[in-house]
């Protein structure tokens, strides 16, 4: 039978790598796992052995049916649903997933709005580099700001393409994300995403744009030396503060600091 890969599945088959992933995840017996992408159930089986309960989601109906027949763990709930459905309200401690590139951005954005202890995620290296991009860098985008503001991000393990079947043409990286702030609202996320359409514009340009196009009163805004600074050079914290000011008017621009120093143009 031809393998079903219409949803972009690349199945992890290297048992040495699987063992390392489980070791690096540091999951304990009290953890409730939220796994997106059951696949063939190889990692799911290992997760059931080391955790309290696993909610595992698989959209592919053929894979779901196969796992439903073969996986009989009492602490496992298999769901033929989109795990990133915004209406799902299943509490969990650890998010666990191996994500295709096209799903990565939406997944991280979804996680920014959830309350959990940590996430163990296998991602393409290119996307991980985007998550970790620094101010001023080419790949410093809205997803970089949202993820770095919300989480501490740690690279755990390099996973070669030969560990998958079929083998993708890219390398993957296992990362750990741990929340460092409260969940973000959908409004904050949308505001940041819109603001980053001005990533190469100066602070003064952006303020004037909002003043002109949204009839906002920014006459009391003290640039405090930041007017000529480009948005792309600000830290995630500064960008979130600036976005809050533009949209809610609750911002003290004198707080715009990066490691104790003003952001540099």
Describe the structure.
By secondary structure, the protein is of the alpha/beta class. The protein is built from 9 helices and 9 strands. It has 2 domains: 11-179, 3-Layer(aba) Sandwich (Rossmann fold); 186-255, no CATH class. Helices cover 35% and strands 18% of the residues. The strands form 2 sheets. Strands 4-3-2-5-6-9-7 form a 7-stranded mixed beta sheet, sandwiched between helices. Strand 2, helix 2 and strand 3 (53-57) form a beta-alpha-beta unit. Helix 6 crosses helix 7, helix 6 packs across helix 9 (236-248) and helix 7 (186-195) packs across helix 9. The N and C termini lie far apart (58 Å).
Structural class: alpha/beta
Portion of residues within helices? 25-40%
Give the CATH architecture of the largest domain: 3-Layer(aba) Sandwich
DSSP strand count: 9
Q: What is the name of the CATH topology of the largest domain?
A: Rossmann fold
Radius of gyration: 21 Å
Point out poorly predicted stretches: 1-7, 250-265
- Strands of the widest sheet, in order across it, are 4-3-2-5-6-9-7
Task: Please indicate the count of domains.
Answer: 2
Strand content: 15-25%
Shape: elongated
Report the total helices. 9
Distance between the termini: 58 Å
Q: What is the CATH class designation of the largest domain?
A: Alpha Beta
H/E series? EHEHEHEEHEHHEEEHHH
The CATH homologous superfamily name of the largest domain equals: Vaccinia Virus protein VP39
Q: Average pLDDT across residues?
A: 89
Largest sheet: 7 strands, mixed
């Amino acid at each position: 039978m031809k393998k079903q890969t219409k949803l972009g599945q690349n199945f992890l088959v290297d048992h040495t790598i699987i063992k390392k992933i489980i070791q690096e995840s540091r999951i304990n017996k009290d953890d409730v796992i939220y796994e997106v992408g059951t696949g063939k159930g190889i990692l799911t089986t290992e997760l059931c052995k080391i955790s309290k309960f696993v909610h595992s989601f698989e959209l592919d109906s053929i894979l779901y049916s196969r796992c439903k027949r073969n996986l009989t763990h009492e602490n496992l709930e298999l769901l033929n649903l989109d795990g990133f459905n915004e209406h799902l309200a299943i509490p969990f401690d650890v998010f666990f997933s191996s994500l295709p590139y096209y799903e990565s951005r939406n997944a991280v954005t979804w996680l920014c709005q959830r309350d959990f202890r940590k996430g163990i995620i296998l991602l393409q290296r290119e996307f991980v580099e985007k998550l970790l991009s620094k101010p001023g860098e080419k790949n410093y985008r809205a997803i970089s700001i949202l993820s770095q503001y919300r989480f501490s991000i740690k690279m755990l393990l390099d996973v070669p393409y030969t560990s998958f079947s079929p083998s993708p043409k890219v390398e993957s990286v296992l990362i750990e994300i741990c929340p460092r702030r409260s969940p973000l609202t959908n409004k904050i996320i949308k505001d940041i995403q819109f603001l980053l359409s001005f990533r190469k514009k100066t602070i003064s340009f952006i303020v004037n744009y909002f003043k002109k196009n949204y009839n906002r009163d920014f006459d009391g805004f003290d640039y405090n030396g930041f007017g000529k600074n480009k948005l792309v050079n600000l830290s995630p914290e500064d960008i979130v503060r600036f976005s809050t000011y533009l949209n809610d008017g609750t911002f003290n621009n004198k707080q715009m600091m990066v490691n104790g120093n003003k952001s540099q143009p």
